[in-house]
Amino acid sequence: MPEAQVPASQGSIMDREGLQALLDVLTSRGFGVVGPRVRDEAVVYEPIRNVADLPEGWTDRQDGGRYRLERREDRALFGYAVGPHSWKQFLFPSRQRLWQARRTETGLEFLEEPSRDERWAFLGVRACELCAIAIQDRVFLGGVHRDRSYAERRQRVFVVAVQCAEPSGTCFCVSMQAGPKATCGFDLALTELLHAGSHRFLVEAGSRVGQEVLAAIPHRPANEDERRAAEKVTALAAARMGRTLETRGIRELLQSHPEHPRWEEVASRCLSCGNCTMVCPTCFCSTVEDHSDLSGKHTERMRLWDSCFTLGFSYLHGGSVRKEIRSRYRQWMTHKLSTWFDQFGSSGCVGCGRCITWCPVGIDITEEARAMRSSLPEETAHV
């Protein structure tokens, strides 16, 4: 987990060779570097070792229910928005064994899962994703009951953020105050600068460990023009958001209208497939399953991702509480934008737009909020 933020520096400059040196230094320090690469016609997060593994010259085009990669006219390494993957897959795995037990001659022996010693370096984390990780930190580490597995993974992560230059058509991080500029939560932050044939990165250290790593790679102080160019990158990104969401009064709006007719309208389109919750970087619902072998000598308990859109998620003795898609969509959206405040002190949405892009029928959470608000009298729509 990144340490307390150090005072912001004026920034340093490194080139592509410096980026490769960064990967080499992180590897030599025992980190497994995970970053963006192209696979199955999408940008996904997977282990990388070389700059050549990055999605050079690729960008993405996203809209409701649509995603495709296109070639850029330059050699940008981070010239895309976000893909279907989020970093939670490494901190909160989709499938994890919690414990196992076996029958021995002396009785039943429980085997707790051993601590993991893997260390990850995340390369290419966007501002919205940093906010998502911070939200999951509150979920899994806040309060009395800390998730041990999450804590072990989280404390060994080195974060290399990349300032966003290419928001997608479904991004609305500005509305959620989650981007596009990363200001905290990272060890190093890169801004990719492409101008007149040159390819450089402005680097800022956000922690003591980040400063140590930066000192081990070739770099030089940034000049005033380079600092201004870096600021322009995120300023232009902020001006090109694909979506907006009016957050004023959204918490009260959703809690006060559980029978609004819009819930029925969106339910007529929703497939209740759970795609939105699987790609969401903040959703944390899970279930447990117990498995035994045929001999009856071994059993194990697994934790798996689950979704509030599945019929069985709200199952109690006698049946499911939320039998209709209308109530399941209402639960998801109201929790994400409203009751999350009551639990964790913030919104559960960072405006990454994944739920819009990867919804098979293109349901748009920003449009649903807008439609609900616009149908109400002005004096109640912004309570």
TrEMBL record:
It comes from the Bacteria. PROSITE patterns: 4FE4S_FER_1, 4FE4S_FER_2. SUPFAM superfamilies: alpha-helical ferredoxin (SSF46548). Residues 259-291, 340-368 form the 4Fe-4S ferredoxin-type domain. GO terms for molecular function: iron-sulfur cluster binding; metal ion binding. Keywords: Iron, Iron-sulfur, Metal-binding. This is Anaerobic sulfite reductase subunit A.
